[in-house]
Design brief:
The structure is a homodimer.
Chain A: E1 2-8, H1 18-30, E2 36-40, H2 48-57, E3 62-67, H3 74-90, E4 95-98, H4 106-119
Parallel strand pairs in A: 1-2, 1-3, 3-4
Chain lengths: ~120, ~120
């Protein structure tokens, strides 16, 4: 069974996670056959391993991680691949893979342009 | 004259800014009558005051700042309003305003959902 994780940076202010919870809710509405979870690199729970454990517990065998970051800096180029590899070793019963950062996607950028056009 | 600033967090790795430069290029293609700039809270140049100075130098009298952040945590709730107010005092010849964070926008979130659907 496929599953998906929206993976974000995390922040001290609990309200920072609101868009992540909205993403998870939207996904659940639109793709109810593919369970999803959110996970954070730091300062927020759950971390990636906890989210993977939850989805594996639901029967996931192929988990796609979506890095919900704009740019690909040190966190995504250095920290994240190591974290993903450690999770893969910890959970051999599921195949883990990751997409590029959402901020690399032309349609995501176009949605930001459209939002900006409405704001001026 | 209206103008727009895409305002991001900033990072140590210079490649992190690529999506911001793409946003600025897309905006320039689609809204060439409204000059734009990028600006960063920390670790990258230009900062907000430098971007405002550049646009005011081009004749901007109304500048809309678009916070290119997912969540609204401490940076946007505490640091950013103070920074915007300081820039407004420094540049009284232009009216500065700000939108909500792009991650609050339903269409931006939907674009992330669509990207994720293509990734699984």
């Amino acid at each position: 069974m496929k599953a998906l994780i929206f993976f974000g940076h995390g922040a001290r202010d609990a309200r920072w996670r609101e868009p992540f919870d909205r993403l998870s809710a939207l996904w659940c509405e639109q793709q109810p056959q593919v369970p999803s979870a959110v996970a954070f690199l730091e300062m927020m729970e759950p971390n990636l391993a906890e989210a993977v454990a939850q989805l594996v517990g639901q029967g996931a065998t192929a988990i796609q991680v979506i890095p919900v970051f704009f740019g690909q800096g040190g966190h995504l180029r250095n920290d994240f691949p190591k974290l993903l590899e450690a999770c893969q070793l910890q959970f051999p019963q599921a195949s883990l893979s990751a997409s590029s950062a959402v901020g690399e996607d032309t349609q995501v950028l176009q949605a930001i342009i459209d939002f900006s056009s409405r704001a001026i």
